[in-house]
Predict the 3D structure of the following.
Amino acid sequence: MNIELTTQQKALQMEVREYMKTVMTPELLEEMKIPEFKEGGGPEFRKQYARMGADGWIGLSWSKDLGGKELSHVEQYIFTDEVVRSGFAYPFLTTEAVTPVIAANANAEVREEVVGGVKQGKVTIAIGYSEPNAGTDLASLTTRAERDGDDWIINGQKMWTSLGNFADYVWLAARTDPDASKKHKGLTMFLVPTNIEGFSLTPVHTLGVRTNATYYSDIRLPDKYRVGEVNGGWKLITGQLNIERLSLFTHGQVASLYEGVCEWAAATDAPKGGKIIEQPWVQHNLAKVKAGLEVVKLICWKQAWAMDQGPLDMADASVAKVYSSEFFVELYRMLLEVMGQAGTIATHSPGAVLKGKLEFRWRVGAVLTFGGGTNEVQRDIIAMAGLWMPRTR
Amino acid sequence: MDFTISEEVKSAQQLAQKILGDFTEVDKLKAIEQQEERMDTALWQALAEAGLLGLDIPEGNGGTGLGFYSLTTLCEEVGRTVAPVPVIPVLVSAAGTLKRFGGSAHNEKWLGGIASGSTLVTAGLEEYNNDDPTAPASTAQKMDGGYSISGTKICVSLAKSAARILVSARAGDDLVVALVDPRAAGVTLNAQRVTTGETRHELVMDKVQVPTADIVAVGREAVAAMEWALQATRTALAAMAVGVCDKMMRITGSYTSEREQFGRAIATFQAVSHRVADCYIDVECLRLVTQQAASLIDQGRPAEEAVKMAKIWCGDVTHRVSQASQHCHGGTGVDRDYVLFRYCELARQIELTAGSSAQLVGELGQDICADYLAKAG
């Protein structure tokens, strides 16, 4: 039991941290001021993403025959943590969640096209799971794919297709067996190129970032874009959820906000003398944040370590999701309280503290507790898998 | 980064589980609760014979030398079984401090007897409104052949039967750590009943003559000893809280799965199961911060901040899990014929021992402030 990073792990951490400073160019920071490109997709983003590919930073966890380095989960987490901390809109779902599934299940030609493209930092993939009437109850989705000769005809609508406005593909879950009794067994996964005829989208502006509604109207998709077996989609969706979560709730991104607020509070005068940080209520908030952050760090490390030992315990994975998502929301509030009115000044406005990062993170953070599997379902899982309690109804 | 628990430590914990389980049936607990002193001496002997009292005592002194981390797993198991044995005051606060700061004379004199169960040395680290043993109000005056100590320590476990009580006192600018004989002239022991229902003692020392042979450390070494004792005690309390809370939560999970109202098990209501799931999350968080603090101390690395965070979590989680467990049980939970009340009492005792969450949040905040002001120059 030694819960500290080894010398090599620390070296990797610093190497990624230094490298990411070169990725976050002044041009990219400028581009990210445009709301459309805040989460990536602009020309400078594409340039830097491709550079990461050329420099060999994409797909480190992949197997060697895919061109990866087979990093352990712990090393992969260290990489992820630092990339998120840097603020680069790295498409983790593309690189860590979806691409390995495609590599393992896709037709050889598509595999070459997509996996190769991702490796080079030229391809991004949006997720097409949720629909207007299928969110938490994902298996009730109704987007249809019907076989027609060597092709599939796809019709339906997806919601919250983030990155869909610049992604090259949508990783689409569609119903291929309309028999309602086979809810989970009637789904198949497809890769839909976004330049295909019949694909369209409209922007959805949220409390935080832009996302999309995407439409699939009589799309004729060659069978080579089907991934995995017909009606075998559910296990491809659920198989990568834990990996997905481990890239959503990382420690560095929130730790850097905490550090930033501490530095600001130590440098800023309080109205009645001394510095902001010398006030007891400020110290109270900072201490609560620190004690909570410590657990985020330990939970992330423990998850990454456990994934290297074998399958992740179901209850533990849900604990990590619920705790981190709810704590992130608390953290945003407690740090914003320290800044008070100044905390409401948005990015690029004069007087914004920490470039308005917290004001923005709070906005984006509103989705955390329900995204990636709503916390009520996670608590159900904890009660059943962790405590052997009966299923709730 | 390695969360692996060694096979030796695991098997010691399993052995502790087995022995503690055998000795903590309700009838036995009830019988011990009737005694004047809340201690199961037969269980203590059984733990000694299994080598479990000497987990953090070197082999050369009659222990098994598995280290501090292993000792915290014993504390966890004692919490899980609410066993009436003084593992924290004797094995952590007293023996752990003597081992590290007592030098060979104290090691040879005391550790063997503690490991074999023949000698009890306890600790009195807290005073009224002061749980910091590096800054006691008690005073020590140098005299020929030792020190004369005056002052009051509170809620001391096993004060009557212990051979010595480890205390700290101020001698001018110096700190003194001493072993006080509770039978010495000038010592008064006043019984104090505490939340767990056990009798502890207010230790009043009026010019108690402590011979040089019973002085453990003076000056900087004494400060280091008391800093270690406080950190180790807090960490051990957090480990015990892991056991207490884990068990309370599991009792509650089982009870609500069986208890039926409106024709169904109440665990099938999300409002109930989610409350228990929240306990599960809390316990996992507490476990992680406790393991971190324990492993740092085990390796002899700086642990002050990790320990503070562990005790903050300990205070919050004991309170929340205890309250949720009571609540989900309804009236059954408060009935003294049911097991839960012992856990709730112990949880509160742990929460308020060696620094509460509110206090430590305040201290941690001051540390953060000092740290960042220094960085800001």
Summary: The radius of gyration of chain A is 22 Å. Chain A touches chain B through 52 residues (CB under 8 Å). Residues 280-309 of chain A form the longest helix (30 residues).
